[in-house]
Amino acid sequence: MSLDFSNRSDPKDYFEILAPINARYQSPVSPLGVQMGPRSGGVAIPDDELEVLSDYASWTNAPQFDSPGRSGYVKRNAPLRAGDTSIYGYKLKGIGNFNGKTRTITPPKSDSYQPVMGTRDNAGNISDELPVILIHMGIAENGTLYPVLDPPKPVGGLSSGRGQREFSNAAKLYKAGVPACLPIAWGRYPELQWQGQPIEFVILGMPSDINERLGAYFEPDTSNGRFEVGQEMRSLIASRFDVYDPRNPGEPLIRIASDMGRNIGGLLRSAHEAGVARFASHTGNFSLMPNKRGLLLHDLDSSVELDSLSPQARALTMTRDIESAIFGFTHSLTHANVYWIVNNPERFLKFNPIKALLKGYFRDDVDEVEIDRASGRIVDMVIQLIKVRTERPSVNDQSMWMAYATANLVPLCLSEVFRLYEKSALNQQNKLPYGSAEFEVHFQRFTRQSEEMFMRRHAEIMAQRR
Question: How far apart are CA 282 and CA 336, in angstroms?
Fold first, then answer.
């Protein structure tokens, strides 16, 4: 449907209107044309409330952004009861871009977005910023692994099909009772074309009043060149254990990290059972639920419906998903200096957060002895990687860490997860297409092809920067 811009509802009737943030809006001369897509399977909200959200998407009213990125956010004046859940606010993904460097907020554009990544110096400052080259593992219908270059994206918006996909995946999870952002609506900007197709957006309900992603709890503080437990984690420890003792943060920290790992594994398993593979399960794609223990899934525009894959690809996609969760969790544990703060290898191993993640996923499907063996091998590598990065890493230490982790941790995780999956009941429902030995051959070929793709893309970027 097309929107009528007369007699619109007042946002203040529904949402908390935040004080202006330190950013400058570059609003369009007139509202953007918006077409809303079918909402079958979505969560029903009052029509006038949806109208206000549509006005934000069209920039009839300037949308609220509370942090850099392509997602606006509005918090309700009071939670809205919708079916068997409550909606605390809405995320409007793909409706614009908040540039953290320039502090400008703009509507979606028909330009390509290039993510960049910088390393931090000992003072915590970003330095040495370079374009990010992401290569994903693709899985062919016959089970062959192949490299996939992360596709370009439009500035501030979702490429064609992504808004609808996020809505569809959220609807599938909602139907199965899996904690995730709630499907409200999706739409497109017919006049904003990117790669020959309209840019899309999606509106998601938030069944939690906690906005911080899980990765925020692993952001350390720095003091005199040392990394310490960050503010978000300190607050969580204090709420979980009634008090935070800065002289002894180690055991509460590793207990919470282990609990998070178990919840990541359990939520990922529930998503797979509902037929959705996460695809990128790092801590930035989870947040805490109101009880501050359970987790909530985010960012489903790149997720896939398992039923849409060939039988040969389903199980491999699930094992890759578990590996990505372990790798992303390891990155956060390392970034937060958890091992060094705990400062006790026996205690770290006792509350082994990697074992907790694997146990959360495989539950009682696999003998605990097998999980102990696999998690032991993985956590040994994790600790080795942490020591390579050092307690007070230099810029060079940090830049080397990612390459070293990718080359060593990824194949080990995939191999161990593959073997656990072979022994699980899941392998009866979605059977692996081949055994461990053949998987190793496929992975080695994938690694060589990925390296070649990376070098080609790196050379292209460097040529453009000259």
Answer: 14
